[in-house]
Amino acid sequence: MPADTSGGKGGFRSFFSSSLRPKKSRQVLRKGNASAPDLPAATQAASKDVPEMPPLAPLQAHREKYKASNAQLDTQLGENRDYTTMIHSIGIQDLNKDQDDPMEYDNRPPGEPQIASLSPALWQEIASYLNPTEAACLAFSTITLYRRLGPRPWKVLNRPENREYRCDFLSYLTGFFPHHLLCFPCAIYHIRTQEGHERLQPADVVNPLYDCPNMYNSVLPPPRHRITHARNLPFSFVQLVLRARRYGPEYGIPLESLTRRWKRNGWTHNTRYHIHNGRLLMRVVSQTFADPGLPPTSQRMLLYSRDDYWPYFSACAHWRDGELMNVCKCALTHVPEPRQTHALLGMEHKMKDTFAGRVYDPNAIASLCGKCRPMRRCPDCPTEYLVEIKLTEDRANPKSIHFRHAIVVTRWSDLGDGSSPNLSPEWAACNGDREGYDSFAVLGKRAISSIFESAFTADTLPGQRIISMNPKNKRLGEEGTNWY
User: Fold this and answer.
1) CA pair distance 99, 410, nearest whole angstrom
2) What is the pLDDT of residues 322-353, one digit of tens each?
């Protein structure tokens, strides 16, 4: 074989060996700087002007910055959970902007020298323009005023004709007597005989809370509010529950102890109470089964008590004035009547239902009209009414429990702050002892029923509009005939 084809420079074997040999790398590692490539001087000079690559992308860096600055914020409510910042903000903010600075009262000079600068005759002339309760409170305020006015306000307050003024003055001192109760017939404080165990009883049960000489005196009855027939709420229990809320449990009884449920004359009643802004609110729910198609006489027999001709359900003292009883009678006419079952009328009703595309249901929900559906508010006292027709289980016979229509009358009332029967305008108005009380002007747009129901069931509120129970403002009382 010739020499140039076997192993020479241009032979066949050398061609393949040179073509399959891996190429030599252009970058050569150097001992001085192993990471820097061997670049020309111009290239290295240009690389100095290029900014370095950031460790995070701009969007990711913005997210990390926002997360770090808002780490103490609640994502749902936006509240700051950094307690150090909260405490400092409380110290910086002025929380008593609407209140006077309490330090101003400490720097004032005492007022006794100014009071003493006026003559006793002038102070007695000032007290003559006040009623006995206000004059006694003025003399009771400071020792200087007592010396100027003398014992005359107390002597006037102790007269028999000023017994109500004496009760009003003693009601301001109830916080000093946790073991006593103010007796309004006697106008003095009595020691509680059932301290902490007072329980509300029916009206025909003797339930003395203290030893009183006028307990059986019908001329001076203790103040009480009529709930239903043979059920009332004595003013002493209003005092007990409100004193326990203001001063402590040793002053009275818990509010839940007033809740009751009873049945009488075919009506079922249940009461519940709530304290709002220092006043006692009461709700009474009364219901009874109502047959369809009642004539007017049967409606009166169902609604009125023959003992005193008051409604069986709970009502205020102004129930005769207005449309309350007419609303109840109108609601009774909306109870669905059963269909006639004999052949001709039954076939006629079936054909009418078929053409109308409806199915007759004797247990259908009764729909009230525009007259009896709205809620009614008494214009003379803080009381509201709601009349409804509901389907209720009849459990008179346990073997055949079925549903029947019942009339339900719900009453909400504000019974006042429990100070005294005279000083509490709500209590006096609900009992008919106060004239000139305008419930729409006092209550405004907020309803008593909404305040009461929102305290127990936030999702269920009376959804009816409120109109006046006496839109014509006729106050005939028992002399009128519209109530019967």
Assistant:
1) 42
2) 899 999 999 999 888 766 555 555 566 666 66
CB atoms within 10 A of CB 188: 13
Domain ranges of the chain: 110-158, 248-339+361-479
Distance from C-alpha of 462 to C-alpha of 468, rounded to nearest angstrom: 16
Describe the crossing of helices 324-332 and 296-303 by its angle, rounded to 10 degrees.
120
362: amino acid identity, one letter: P
Q: Which of 78, 89, 83 is nearest to 70 (CA)?
A: 78
Query: Could you tell me if 318 and 470 are in contact, meaning their C-beta atoms sit under 8 angstroms apart?
Result: yes
Amino acid at 34: A
Torsion of CA 75, 77, 81, 84, to 10 degrees: 130
Angle among Cα 193, 195, 200 to the nearest 5 degrees reads 90
Tell me the per-residue pLDDT of 358-396, one tens digit each, with 9 for 90 and over. 555 666 778 888 889 999 999 999 999 999 999 888 887
Least Cα distance to 411 among 365, 370, 378 occurs for 378
